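Incident log, structure service

09:12 report received: a user says their structure output differs between two submissions of the same chain.
09:20 pulled the input from the user's history:
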Amino acid sequence: ALHAAMLSAWRQTATRTIIETVETEQRDAHARLSRLIELGTSNGKAARLETALRAWAQHDPSAGKALASVDTERLEYVASLLREAGLERATAATRAKILYLALIGSFFAASETDLHAGPELWREVTKLIA
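09:34 re-ran on a clean worker, output below:
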């Protein structure tokens, strides 16, 4: 029960609350995408939690199922923003996956290395994706 509650709280905080914030604050699809990326990349504690959750999911089927569900929800949201911005469905899905994989990769890069992805990198990624 504790693990299920932890996974549920993570899903709410790290996905649904962020999407709700983006939807409330921004009207334009490009602005929402930029804000989503800003929120998703500005919290080092969230990145560490995400990394830990992904490690947990490799060994626990219930965590793996929750992670897969969250990944799908996030990918679908980003793809919907890209479609709203004018991209074709297949292109939007592919670019959403590119963005998401870049984000996950950034979680694993140490902030002390040259691989640290700062705001300027994410602005460029946003331009390439949208």
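09:41 both user submissions now match this output. Likely a transient worker issue. Closing.
09:42 reviewer note: The mean pLDDT is 91. The two ends are 40 Å apart (CA to CA).
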